[in-house]
Amino acid sequence: MATRNEAEEPVYVISIAAKLLEVHPQTLRLYERLGLVAPARSGRNIRLYSRRDLERVRRIQHLTQDMGVNLAGVDVILDLLERMEREREAVARRMMQIRRELEQRIARMREDLEADLRRQLEQEATVKG
Question: Are 53 and 100 contained in the same domain?
């Protein structure tokens, strides 16, 4: 499985991307014009598609061909999916923060409890001794 950076590396020119996706290059240009996909550009202004771009086009194809969604609907769906992913990532970050805070509180409480137990044992030893 490709890492996130490898998946985002723009490596495929439009002709190769179109061949891999089994679409006409004009389809990719249309998707770009509509803002559905945004390939990188080389210094010579050549479109370069990443694996992530190809995955996005496959998702567009699935929505249009298999689900019967028009391109305007695809735009809305993809936007909602991206927003949901950003929210999911934010929730995951917050959960990790809360977990760290709880672990720190538990560690402090454990230290306090151990200190209290030591004091009690010392007091009992003093009373008996």
Answer: no
